[in-house]
Design goal:
274 residues, 11 helices, mainly alpha
Amino acid sequence: MKKLMNIEPSRSLKGFLAILPFVVILMLYWTASNDRLAENPYDKLLPSFTQISDAVDRMAFTEDKRSGEYLFWVDTGASLYRICIGIGISAAVGLLFGMLSGLLPIFRSGFSPLITIVSLIPPMAILPILFISFGLGELAKVMLIIIGTAPVIIRDIQSHVRQLPSEILIKAQTLGASTWLVAIRVVLPQIMPRLIAAVRLSLGTAWLFLIAAEAIAAQEGLGYRIFLVRRYMSMDVILPYVLWITALAFAMDFSLRKMSELCFPWYHHQEAGK
């Protein structure tokens, strides 16, 4: 008899097991919602699926009477713009300074202690400083994402560069490669898949900082809308927004993973073999 730890489920069973927790959660929610609404039809804590559907139709497919806009899509566009700009700059900064710090000992000696300290500063603690320094516009929100994610990416890239086999770097130098050529032709191809992996790991943190910044100072955005309607306990709006944020984060993560598998198949074969 096989031990439980050695039993590999079939493809169909894997699909069933993946869907099962979501079905259970939906059933539990449906049951709890029906019970609460049976006791109090005006209960707002657990709206019914019909109420949630009506809220989605109102926010996403009905023009707002004041602005004439579809608020759901306006909020989505604003949040996606901010997080894409923030995480894009963080990736570029992380790649540049991570490579320099990992490849150049003299740069690492002066820069690494600073980035270690910066990475330990809670970004939410300096949010008021960002709003005072950069105002209440887009820059402060993007800067919060950068400060919250770039140091982590830098440290990850630096660590990965330092883990590269020294024989590869020595052989390149023996063949006459300069430091710049070693960085571009040897180090960069090796760390690009790791950069994508670091960005994927930073997405959850980036969304957290974005929602927090939008909740405090914004005129549109997914986080802004959630905190705007919470005063009315509009769970029929909050729940779809939370699920939509989760779906967007999953789509971004999935896209990055597929891009990495397509561009760097050797890396994923190597990881699968470990």
